[in-house]
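Q: what does this look like with guanine bound?
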Amino acid sequence: MPSPLLLDGKQIAAQIRKELKAANALRISIGQRPPLLAAVLVGNDGGSESYVAHKIKACADVGFESRLLRCSSAISQSELLSVVHGLNQDEQVDGFIVQLPLPEHIDEQVINLAIDPSKDVDGFHPVNIGRMALGLPSYLPATPAGICELLRRNGITTSGMHAVILGRSHIVGSPLAQLLARPGEPGNCTVTLCHSKTVGLRDHCLRADLLVAALGKPGFVKADMVKPGAIVVDVGTTRVADPSRPSGFVLRGDVAFDEVAPLCKAITPVPGGVGPMTIASLLTNTCQAFLHR
Ligand code: GUN
């Protein structure tokens, strides 16, 4: 088996940022202002802190403005709703995100429903989910959109493939199932969406031409679950303790990379695969939000 194609999200995300930066510089040269993304961060979860920091830094890299709104983990639901209403009404803000997960005393769907769909650059509001389902223009959720762009820019055509997705989250698995099933490239897949109650998971995986792991279980996908020649996309980024690292942890994907990679036609690394593409897609959505206003 020839060595697998490494789907290098870091490199492709850098290319997308370069394109966004050039278009932004052009707009600024004719007197326009840059797009502005706001991010709401509730509490101090290490993973969320890191994701939001990457999003803010990515804005600076391409010349977009950003605003970070930090809230205590003790913020009440009604106070957080006021923050969202403020951003909805703020003329300077083109798009914003509320980083998930939220503390347990806050209902994520209540917050999600309060976001103005025209500023919902996460693409999580029912209006955007519904528009996506109908194939209408909308903000696409950043991780599924990033995965599609990673496949597209690597020249991988998925038409006719059997795609198997592990994990039915609203953020990744469910919207990706829709994007891969709909007409287009990437798309035109026959999709199986697996979850914690799926029976015969390994047999489903073994039928996958395209296998996407988005369940947050480090090393879950083993070599005996992968069809030789499959394309494997790893969405997992679990922090696993590693005292030998200065940070004290290492990021682990859902795929046992060392044993699975030799079987694959193409595979994403962790880190440096899907993660950077998610952030690039968020910037693309922010640019769209700016252009629509
Ligand atoms: N938490 C994990 N992924 C995401 C994402 O794409 N957007 C938001 N807002 N929170 C997340």
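The mean pLDDT is 97. The longest helix spans residues 9-29.
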